[in-house]
């Protein structure tokens, strides 16, 4: 029994000693590993510090590298963007000509592109050194904005806004195409409807010609109303399409505008690039003056058919036999006599036509001035209005109304008496009225052209075009 107790005590002592040795071995191994890891960590930290020091030195050297003829963009409080080329520049300072620097004033913010990086310029300080002659040294700090990243909500909102702008632009394009197609079809229908009585004059009686004339009156008035509304909408759609395209361009700069690789190889680079800004903006996002004038004068010529067809159908109702007469001299004389009697149609056409063209020019004026600083510009109508122009327009309208009444009363009296020959229809009084009416139409057209051009010139001085971004 004593021997068994001695054996148990010996076994317990041996097991305790083995456990203690094992624990000492584990602690020794952990200490060796921690020392090794510590050496490794110190080695990694030293290498990282060395890399950071090299990168900082490279960045400092990159900031001090100077580039020749660097374009700076100064956004001034008036809403314009001044583009001035520095003689040389770096990420810390730039050298400008003194005459160029005086035109800057106090900019809202400044941007510059150096070595593929788009930089925001802050803390601008100008130093006038007499030894530099006519140059000014400008010192500043820069912030790299090409490396900025959009958050997920910002990117999602920007993409949804981009899709919405594209959908709106395509919708406006489709509405313009549909309106143009409908106008062409309506003019074709009007031409066929007006030519039918002359083509089938052997089969058309006097009563049938009158009925045909009433139908033509309804068709001509409807087409006139639709074309007038379509041209008015064309000017509004024109402005809104340019607004959508320029908004799309601004959203595009949030994504691809920060990519150096994209801006190095793309045909459409950033607007801050000197060579591509003018070429790109003068494309689909810019309305040239020649494009606007071509559209205006084309509408003036095409819309002339509206009163001509309307007067033709009036003559067909009043004088069906004389109008479809094979003798062209009689038909022409009757047509011009009806035109003189219903001269108010010409005055109404000219007044609405000039107003629609003026509206298109105003919308084009606004569209050419869309910019990030003024995304929805307004036409300065109150600033350019003059009392003299207003009273002159009232005088012309009153004169046109009196002339139209006199012509209509003269025509009604002759029609009631039933003039039997063309000589009775075209007396000396009628010829004088024809010349006076034609002169009044020409004078009103010339005055309106001069007034609109003068008004746009004054508006351009009040609201100048930001030529740095959107050249004329």
Describe it.
The chain is an alpha+beta fold and 472 residues long. The protein has two domains: 67-144, Trypsin-like serine proteases (Thrombin, subunit H, Beta Barrel); 152-462, no CATH class. The protein is 69% helix and 11% strand. It is built from 15 helices and six strands. It has helices at 2-64, 98-102, 152-199, 206-255, 260-265, 276-281, 289-303, 305-318, 320-323, 328-341, 343-367, 381-384, 387-417, 422-425, 428-462, and strands spanning 67-75, 81-89, 93-97, 109-114, 117-127, 135-144. Strands 1-2-3-6-5-4 form a six-stranded antiparallel β-barrel. Strand 4 (109-114) and strand 5 form a beta hairpin. Helix 4 (206-255) packs antiparallel against helix 8 and helix 10 crosses helix 11. The longest helix is centred in the N-terminal third of the chain and has 63 residues, at 2-64. The chain is elongated, with a radius of gyration of 41 Å. Mean pLDDT is 75; it is low at 1-17, 34-44, 267-283 and 468-472.
Q: What would you say about this model in short?
A:
The protein is of the alpha+beta class and 472 residues long. The protein has helices spanning 2-64, 98-102, 152-199, 206-255, 260-265, 276-281, 289-303, 305-318, 320-323, 328-341, 343-367, 381-384, 387-417, 422-425, 428-462, and strands at residues 67-75, 81-89, 93-97, 109-114, 117-127, 135-144. The protein folds into two domains: 67-144, Thrombin, subunit H (Beta Barrel); 152-462, no CATH class.
SSE blueprint:
Elements: H1 2-64, E1 67-75, E2 81-89, E3 93-97, H2 98-102, E4 109-114, E5 117-127, E6 135-144, H3 152-199, H4 206-255, H5 260-265, H6 276-281, H7 289-303, H8 305-318, H9 320-323, H10 328-341, H11 343-367, H12 381-384, H13 387-417, H14 422-425, H15 428-462
Antiparallel strand pairs: 1-2, 1-4, 2-3, 3-6, 4-5, 5-6
């Amino acid at each position: 029994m004593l021997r068994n107790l001695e054996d148990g005590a010996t076994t317990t002592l041996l097991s305790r000693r083995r456990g203690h040795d094992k624990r000492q071995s584990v602690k020794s191994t952990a200490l060796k590993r921690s020392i090794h890891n510590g050496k490794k960590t110190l080695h990694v930290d030293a290498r990282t510090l060395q890399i950071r020091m090299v990168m900082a030195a490279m960045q400092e050297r990159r900031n001090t590298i100077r580039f020749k003829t660097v374009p700076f963009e100064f956004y001034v409080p008036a809403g314009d963007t001044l583009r001035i080329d520095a003689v040389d520049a770096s990420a810390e300072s730039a050298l400008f000509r003194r005459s160029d620097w005086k035109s800057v004033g106090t900019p809202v913010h400044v941007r510059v592109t150096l070595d593929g990086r788009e930089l925001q310029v802050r803390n601008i300080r100008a130093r006038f050194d007499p030894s530099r002659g006519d140059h000014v040294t400008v010192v500043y700090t820069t912030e790299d904005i090409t490396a900025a990243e959009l958050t997920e909500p910002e990117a999602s909102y920007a993409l949804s806004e981009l899709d919405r702008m594209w959908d709106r632009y395509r919708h406006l394009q489709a509405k313009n195409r549909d309106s143009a197609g409908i106008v062409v079809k309506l003019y074709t229908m009007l031409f066929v409807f007006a030519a039918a009585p002359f083509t089938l004059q052997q089969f058309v009686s006097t009563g049938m010609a009158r009925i045909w004339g009433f139908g033509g009156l309804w068709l001509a008035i409807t087409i006139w109303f639709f074309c007038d509304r379509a041209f008015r909408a064309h000017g509004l759609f024109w402005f809104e399409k340019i607004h959508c395209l320029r908004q799309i361009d601004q959203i595009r700069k949030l994504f691809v505008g920060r990519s150096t690789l994209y801006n190095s190889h793309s045909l459409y680079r950033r607007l801050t690039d000197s060579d591509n800004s003018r070429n790109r903006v003068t494309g689909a996002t810019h309305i040239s003056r020649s494009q606007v004038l071509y559209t205006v004068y084309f509408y003036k010529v095409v819309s002339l058919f509206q009163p001509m067809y309307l007067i033709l159908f009036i003559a067909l109702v009043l004088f069906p036999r004389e109008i479809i007469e094979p003798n062209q001299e009689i038909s022409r004389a009757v047509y011009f006599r009806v035109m003189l009697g219903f001269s108010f149609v010409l005055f109404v056409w000219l007044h609405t036509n000039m107003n629609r063209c003026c509206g298109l020019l105003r919308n084009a004026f606004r569209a050419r001035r869309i910019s990030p600083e003024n995304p929805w510009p307004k036409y300065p109508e109150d600033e350019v209005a003059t009392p003299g122009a207003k009273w002159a327009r009232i005088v012309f309208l009153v004169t046109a109304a009196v002339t139209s009444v006199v012509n209509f009363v003269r025509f009604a009296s002759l029609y009631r008496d039933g003039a039997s020959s063309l000589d009775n229809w075209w007396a000396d009084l009628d010829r004088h009225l024809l010349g006076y009416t034609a002169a009044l139409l020409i004078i009103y057209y010339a005055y309106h052209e001069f007034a609109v051009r003068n008004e746009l010139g004054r508006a351009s001085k009040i609201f100048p075009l930001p030529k740095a971004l959107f050249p004329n």
